[in-house]
Write a structure and sequence with these properties.
Helices cover 39% and strands 23% of the residues. The chain has 9 helices and 8 strands. Strands 3-2-1-4-5-8-6-7 form an 8-stranded mixed β-sheet.
Length: 251
């Protein structure tokens, strides 16, 4: 196949993954439903994003709307669990997801909540090819579900403005992650539907960071996230063997 044809056919979308999450779309905003783990996970994600964005852009994290005049992309936004809090903090948010069903659920909830968000059923590559630019990109629990991580990160890098930052949250490809995030969470505790994660698609930090560097970004911070069963909450940790988050900056 000619190189031009291969390039034109390149995509980050894994159709099976899109179909899997589309079938669960009605559950997005049910805190006790199929996405309960994300609802429990949200506070630690939100605090990390709020503090890092405020520090990077010189904002007061205690202000009512510290993200005013900043343009955010929530790529792989699902039902909007992160998009809505970012909009409430003052950001101009574009929420994008390959699943049209997820986007319709997100639009409906935002309308009912009185939150203004620009939701689009689009891919990272279509947004990048259209010349979209953002100050902050939220890339949370997405890379382990795409078909081509390097292409996906490269397209996100194209959309990040110089001086912008991107957050990436994912799961490490370790036997500990297999035991806890897949066997434990999906088959034993049934926190997630079986098949939510495929071990071979999990991403090691060094693989992610290599893709970020190739896309013109540098890693500014890396943190693990662990579940505290006594407090029944997720918290930041030095342990990156399972869940972890990375903050990258574009010079």
């Amino acid at each position: 196949m000619p190189q031009a044809a291969r390039t034109a056919a390149a995509t980050t979308i894994d159709a099976a993954e899109v179909e899997r999450f589309s079938k669960l779309s009605a559950e997005w905003w049910n805190p006790n439903g199929k996405f309960r783990p994300l609802h429990k996970f949200n506070p630690v994600r939100l605090a990390y994003i709020r503090d890092a964005v405020a520090e990077h852009f010189g904002r007061d994290p205690r202000a009512a709307k510290p993200f005013e005049k900043l343009r955010f992309l929530d790529i792989g936004c699902g039902g909007g669990l992160l998009s809505e809090p970012m909009a409430r903090l003052g950001a101009a948010v574009v929420g994008a997801d390959a699943s049209e069903t997820n986007i319709e659920v997100a639009k409906l909830h935002a309308s009912e909540s009185g939150v203004k968000i620009d939701y689009r059923a689009e891919t990272a590559e279509s947004l990048a090819d259209a010349g979209e630019k953002f100050d902050v990109i939220l890339n949370m629990e997405v890379v382990e579900h795409v078909a081509d991580i390097d292409l996906f990160i490269a397209k996100c890098g194209e959309m990040l403005k110089p001086g912008g930052i991107m957050f990436v949250a994912t799961i490490n490809r370790t036997f500990k992650a297999l035991a806890l995030a897949i066997v434990g969470a999906e088959y034993v505790l049934r926190w997630l539907p079986r098949g939510t994660h495929q071990f071979g698609k999990l991403v090691r930090p060094e693989e992610l960071e290599a893709a970020l560097r190739a896309a013109g970004m540098t890693v500014a911070d890396r943190t693990g996230v662990v579940y505290n069963p006594i407090a029944d909450r997720w918290q930041r940790s030095r342990d990156i063997d399972v869940n972890y988050m990375v903050l990258a900056k574009k010079a």
